[in-house]
Structures are given as C-alpha cells and as structure tokens.
C-alpha cells in the first residue's frame, strides 16, 4: 500500500515540475483576460451616451459585409472588415487615424523584410554565398 502511495506522490511531483513552466506562462494571460472581462462588464453597466447606436452601426456594417461577400474566402474576410473599419472611422476618427498609421508602418517594415529575404534568395541562387548579418552589429560598426 505504501509503495502505491509513494508511486502516486512521485508522479504528482513529476507532473508539478513538468507543468510549472507552462503554468507560469499561462497564469498571467488568464489573469489579464479576467481583468479585461471585469473592466468590460463595468463599462457596459454604465456606457457613455451614444455607445449602443454606434456599436449597432458598426456591427450592422459587418453583417452587411458578410451578406455582400458571397463567393470567395477573401471577400468574406475583406468586405466585413472593411465596412466595419469605415463605420468605426466615422465615429472615432482620431483612433482610426492612429491605427491606420501604425498598420502602415508595420506593413512597410514587413514588406522591407520580404524584399531583403527575396534579394538574399536570388543572391544565393546566383552562386554567391550570402553572409547573414545581425542588425545590431551593423549599427555598432556605423557608430564607431
């Protein structure tokens, strides 16, 4: 009987040590999700004026986009998102401009990385070995 308890305790200890890292990573995310849910609940209990009509217009734009996007999957993604973005930008122009600017910067950086990667592929195809450089090292050399 004691050997069974010891085996159970050993396996319990093994499980605890194995999952400790995962729990450490997941726990803050779950806590932040709970906090967000609580904040959302309190916000919706006493919303600002004109909140529900605005949310209705934006939501209706998304449903209209789903209705218009018959056919391809790309249309089903772009139409609702685009119409909701237009509705959002009508009611919240400053936030929409900020989001558009940040998205544009991110897309530019992504396109630049893609260009560099394609350039490296073509250089390696031509027979020249490509030396991968770290950006931090280049910046240090430029400042010296």
Describe the structure.
It is a single chain. With about 140 residues, the chain is mainly α. It has 3 domains: about 1-45; about 50-90; about 95-144, no CATH class. The protein has 5 helices and no strands. Helix 2 (about 50-70) packs antiparallel against helix 3 (about 75-90) and helix 3 packs antiparallel against helix 4. The longest helix has about 45 residues, at about 1-45. The model has no long low-confidence stretch (mean pLDDT about 85).
- State the shape: flat
Largest sheet: none
**Alpha-carbon distance between the two ends:** 71 Å
Q: What is Rg? A: 26 Å
Which parts are unreliable, with pLDDT below 50 for 5 consecutive residues or more? none
Helical element count?
5
Beta fraction: under 5%
**Strand-and-helix sequence, N→C?**
HHHHH
Total domain count: 3
Mean pLDDT: 83
Count of β-strands: 0
Helix and strand content put the structural class at mainly alpha
The portion of residues assigned to helices is over 70%
